[in-house]
Please model this.
Amino acid sequence: MEKKIGHPRVSPRFEWLFVLFTFMQTAGVFVDGWAHGHINQLDTFFTPWHALFYGGFIFSSGLLFIELLKNHRNGYPWRRALPREYFFALGGVVIFGLGGMGDLIWHTLFGIEAGVDALLSPTHMALAFGGAVMASAPLHAIWYRDTNVHRILKLPVIISFALFFMVFTFMMQFFHPFYLPLWMSNLPDVNILSELQQTFHRELGIANSIIYTGMFMGLLLSTIRSWKFPFGSFSIILGLNALAIVLMVGDFYQFITTGFVAGFLVDIIYYKLFHNILKPHVIRVFGFLVPAAIFSSYVVTVLITNGTWWSIHLVAGYIVIAGIAGVMMTYLVVPPGDQRIQ
Model:
């Protein structure tokens, strides 16, 4: 058989199935997170929630290998038997598989983790990273696919972005603003906190705005030069993220609406500024407005539903510092000048 050049195309059915299976895998991660937070004693590796995300892994990796074998039989050499973006997913399969085997051994030797220990367990981080790499394959199409030959399906890219972001916010959930809003008036009870504890809660609350901004803006800005998201994309991305975190926590349901509202505001900002986004002054404004809009929505939700024990200075600064963090991220994409090291 004559060997073919280039990389093969994948069918829309393949892309939709892959997104479905990686969605199942990611959902399993959040269900497992719910179990670790709500079931007092987990004494076995073999649980229904493990079955969900390991099942998603088996289906998505199986789909990749079937496509790989099919394309090889059709004349593509092994090193080019998948589109380039899906070779990243194969790397994720290896990382996830090794992490899964390691997780079984880790649980057998050291028991079942709980709380932050479960997030920072080395085998769990390997699982999360491998799963994130797998889920990001459709997103990688915006950088690697020749659109003159093979068109990009928009919704799989949007969902892939959402899943990739969801995995990393899951692993950093202790810094997620929706996970534990430390500055709501009834949480914590400031009457029983020392001054040192109150200061710690304020600082941790401020940190979540900076870290969340860094994760979201880092991923968003990486796409700026390669692709334009259709209107409504960020309503889906931030809405799904809020939905997943809130349902996992089992509290603070008002923030589901916040996620979708914040996403809608980001959609408007993105739509209005994108045509000039690579101009330095425009991307700086964009970098400030996006996180400021997200955290303004969050602040309004807290003030309406629970109130806050923070001062007006801290509440306003909470929004502004997120915006400043966003501006700083933009310098990685559009530096202030064109000077080069000689």
Observations:
- The chain has two domains: 1-171, 184-335.
- Residues 195-222 form the longest helix (28 residues).
- The CA atoms of residues 73 and 340 lie 47 Å apart.
